[in-house]
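Need tokens for this chain, all 48 residues.
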Amino acid sequence: MAEPIDQNIVDALKQGIWTEEEQEQALTMMLAQVEEKPAEQHPEGEVE
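Here are the structure tokens for all 48 residues:
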């Protein structure tokens, strides 16, 4: 199970207190974190 998205980022997006550029940077960071997780969770022996 992927870790929950940073609640501070979610709150800021909901409140609309960030500029479009800041939102884009935050989303990019979140995506990068999500993409890194699966690789860390699967040891080499587990991959078929």
